[in-house]
Design a protein that fits this description.
The complex is a heterotrimer of chains A (about 150), B (about 55) and C (about 190). In chain A, about 5% of the residues lie in helices and about 45% in strands. By secondary structure, chain A is mostly beta strands. Chain C has helices spanning about 5-10, 85-90, 170-185; strands at about 5, 15, 25-35, 40-45, 55-60, 65, 70-75, 100-105, 110-120, 125-135, 140-145, 150, 155. Classes of the chains: A mainly beta (about 150), B mainly alpha (about 55), C mainly beta (about 190). At the B-C interface, helix 1 and strand 1 of B face strand 3, strand 4 and strand 12 of C.
Chain lengths: ~150, ~55, ~190
Amino acid sequence: MSESFRQAAGRKVVSRATAQQLGTVSHLLVTADGRRVAAVVMGKGKKASLVDWSQLTGFGTDAVMVGDEAALRQPADAREHAAAEGKLELIGRRLLSESGNELGTVDDVTFDPASGALEALHGGAHQVAADAVLGAGSYAVVVAASAGAV
Amino acid sequence: MSVVAWLIVAVVVIVVALVAFVVIRRRSRRGGVIATPSRKGTPGATGRTTGDPKP
Amino acid sequence: MTLLMTASEINGLPVVTVHGGEDVAEVRDVLYDPAAGRLVGLTLNKRGFLAGRCREVLPAESIHAIGRDAVMVVDDSAMVEPDAAPQEMAHPPANRNVLGNDVLTESGVSLGTVRDLVVVVGGAGEVVGYRIDKADGRPGYIPLPAQLAVSGSALVVPEVTESFVTDDLVGLGAAVDSFRARLGLP
């Protein structure tokens, strides 16, 4: 059963140790190569915190479970700070082919909640398999030229 | 002139200066299409070019 | 299919990294070698509404692709310090902008003024011709091998060029081929 970034937004983040809600999912940060979910981002701006994908004990349909509150951390590097500002959010990002032509904007992204691996990007008339993604940044998600409309 | 009139003049001057700054700055960003001088020993497709320094 | 683009469509395009999705610069000048008929490279502005000139330049060999919406590079390392670039790129001559140049035949008749440069999209950045504004105000296209000389104020073309001026981009492709044949070029 695959999950989507749109469905995941707003989901509760709950501590397994205390059963307390620690926050809600703001968005999911992907790795720079655009192939996997790197972390769950909660909140925005100065109040933002991250949970690394490896720290999750489960990505359920109703809640995202983490070990305890210690799993939450502040953004560390430049990419994570940009993510905290919401600049790397995939949804709404430009979809650009490696030949320099715009294909549209990303509407939604599906991923495997068990592994965090991305499955496909959906944008307008295009559906791009995740293995065609070459890079994801603040300006665009770049996909291989061969990855046209599926 | 009253204080209000002076204020209005000051605001107009500042706005004009800002607009001029933005226009000049934007214009300085405008690029061109530049023909590079061909290197010595590599004559043009038809063998002649002008604009190169004479040896 | 061969896609043609004009150089002023490339001016101002963002430069985007393939393996990062970041816009690292935008195109300022398009530099080309009129003798070789190919792009030499691009000079850059920083990104941002009022940002200034970018020190680094982008040699044609480092361009991954030029598209309708962006110039793609593999990563940051595609942009090099001027010292590391070919000399004509490091210090682009300011007085050799061809846009607005007068197009003169050898006998001194003006065919119009240069409006733009026509470039093949993708590949090695081949330059195929000029778009001109003819004396009557209508657009025309001149195949690149026609030029005898380029100076930054005028373009001198052979007498026979006049018969190769086409009215549209589609005609330009055919004109380039027949013009080369006429001049005995490969």
